[in-house]
Amino acid sequence: MKACLPVAGLLAVTTTAMPALADCSTVRLAEPGWTDLALTTAVTQVLLEGMGHETETEILGIPVIYEAMKAGDLDVFMGYWDPAMETYFNAYRDTGEIETIHTNLEGAKFTWAVPSYVHEAGVTSFADLAAQEDKFGGKLYGIEPGSNDIMLEIVEKDEFGLGDWDVVESSEQGMLAQVAREVRSEDWIVFLAWAPHPMNTNFDIAYLEGGDAWYGPDFGGATVSTQVREGYVSECPEVGKLLTQLTFDVDMESEGMGYILEDGMPPKEAARTLIAAYPDRLQGWLDGVETVDGAPALAAVKSDLGL
């Protein structure tokens, strides 16, 4: 959960007119620079390219992704975290401009966390933070701008007595680097955390209680869903069929994210490595799906991957 396009790029994405007819040969995907979505988006790209499609990916903030999908400039978003992204999606929920078509991950979570030594010292809830402002330096560590709105709103509304705290926005990698520095010296830090992610095994961390009204129950327990622009599944049914069958699990995603974060693989290389480690998943993902030429997609993708 990286960088967004420059302003000129954003304007280009959000102001281009919707084409009169869908071109299913190229699938345009968006992701916000989060490693989990970089991975699942890359897996989707690898499968689509094995089916004969071309793919394009833009890294954008969540609000810009939704506006671009509404404008018809993007087709697919693999990463609607519910309920954490509900605030962003509510404006489009009832209009039909963006369609949620499939839950691709269950068992996710998304809220604030601290190192376990901080938790053991008595900071177990959002409500415990304000009393320890000096130890935390009055800072809440988030990820890239556009992904920390809940954290920012908590500060703006002085919830939990955090009104004078600062939200440090950088990137997923930047935040994790800060966590690593603080953990090495056993200093105190509170940060945005989620699963799936290798941070859950790379660091000894504990999720904070008390944020249910903001992030949802069960430590921001979440599902992740696939969304498309209005009408896309009917316009591009074979792509749509793949998207409604493409399902992951927490352990699988965490493994693939480790390829990116720890092994330094580009997302597509990580995706191909992950698929090769779980070749049996292809059967369910590609069942009944056809390539752009009308051939069975399963055989084509396996051939493309050398499986």
Automatic annotation (TrEMBL):
What is the annotated signal peptide range for this record? 1-22
Report the domain of life of the source organism.
Bacteria
- Domain (ABC-type glycine betaine transport system substrate-binding) spans 26-275
Q: Which UniProt keywords apply?
A: Signal
What GO molecular function annotations does the UniProt record carry, in alphabetical order? choline binding; transmembrane transporter activity
InterPro entries, per database record: ABC_choline_sub-bd, ABC_Gly_betaine_transp_sub-bd
Q: SUPFAM superfamilies per the record?
A: Periplasmic binding protein-like II
Name of this chain's protein: Glycine betaine/proline transport system substrate-binding protein
NCBIfam families, per database record: ABC_choline_bnd (TIGR03414)
Query: Listed GO cellular component terms?
Result: ATP-binding cassette (ABC) transporter complex; periplasmic space
GO biological process: what's one of them?
choline transport
